[in-house]
Amino acid sequence: MSLAPRAVLVHRTTEYEELVARHGTHGQAAFFLSSRGRDIEEVTERHRRARRALAEVTAAVPLNWRQALLERADLDRFLFAPEDVVVVVGQDGLVANAAKYLDGQPVIGIDTDPGRNPGVLVRHRPRDAAALLASAGGAAEELTMVEAVTDDTQRLVALNEIYLGAPGHQTARYRLGLDGDRGVVEAQASSGVLVGTGTGATGWLRSVWQERGGTLPLPAPTEDRLLWFVREAWPSPATGTSLVGGGLTASASLTLTVESDRLIAFGDGIESDALQLTWGQTVRVGVCGRRLRLVG
Fold first, then answer.
1. Kindly report the CA angle at 228 between 223 and 232, in degrees rounded to 5?
2. Contacts of 257 (CB under 8 A, 6+ apart)
3. Are 279 and 258 in contact (CB under 8 A)?
4. Which are the contacts of 236, defined by CB distance < 8 A and separation ≥ 6?
5. CA torsion through residues 153, 156, 162, 166, sign
6. What gap in Å lies between CA 19 and CA 191, rounded to an integer?
7. Taking a C-beta distance cutoff of 8 angstroms, is the pair 86, 102 a contact?
8. DSSP classification of residue 101
């Protein structure tokens, strides 16, 4: 007998909860904010909206389904199952946080703070949860993801972008090459390399793209194409600046060989969950074979 679906409700600790945990009581948190010109009522109201949304979505889960409540900090320790339906209740970034741990499970994004969130990935309201859960096994938008694979088989997957560079964003030294570029490799010193998807083109990747004049066409979220940029490449007798940006098709990849004591690669802004790269190690970055299945 097949198992009933499980609704995995992903949420994150609110700013109000973090403040109270840090300062001990509501009153002390209120005093801290007021001393900096902020009103705790604004923070408290957002907390209430988030908790009301989570309660409404929880109540919409069919009675014959199983449920799991998952906080963002526990994503890397949670075992997702093939029959799961993942409901992200929060911000757009929370969908990206969850995406790297999924393998084909449908994802429903519920916006807890309309007007404050862009709504790129959390496209729905809590009142829509019941209908979305009922249709979660149907069609979904297949969003392209990016992956980095090292020569010792470490692997990192991200929905928006992967950053490769030095911890603390200091100068990174490496050799950079492109597939199909006649073996051309360039030694570089820079603030790191950013490789992003069409979904990432709404965030960090777009800011770099705009600084470069926006000459490269941005990929669509479902397009099997990535953009990459070298940040602040430094010209010197030993390092060049000729390979500083471009596109990657599904069959191509960017290769980086470490020439520093330590570099890292992390995805979607989560530096705490990074690949550790050492001198002489090589990492290849390209389109991931997995997709994020976003409902609606």
1. 155
2. 174, 175, 177, 185, 280, 281, 282
3. yes
4. 189
5. negative
6. 33
7. yes
8. T
Indicate if the pLDDT at residue 232 is higher than 70: yes
Of 68, 63, 50, nearest to 6 by C-alpha is 68
Structure tokens belonging to residue 296: 């609606």
Tokens for 170? 């200091």
- For all residues of the chain together, what is the average pLDDT? 94
* CA distance linking residue 245 with residue 87, whole number of Å: 35
How far apart, in whole angstroms, are the C-alpha atoms of residue 35 and residue 252?
A: 53
Per-residue pLDDT tens over the stretch 28-69: 999 999 999 999 999 999 999 999 999 999 999 999 999 999
283 contacts 148 by C-beta, under 8 angstroms: yes
Q: In this predicted model, what pLDDT tens digit does every residue of 119-130 receive, in sequence order? A: 999 999 999 999
Please give the single-letter amino acid code of residue 50.
A
Report how far residue 203's alpha carbon sits from residue 103's, in angstroms, rounded to the nearest whole number.
23
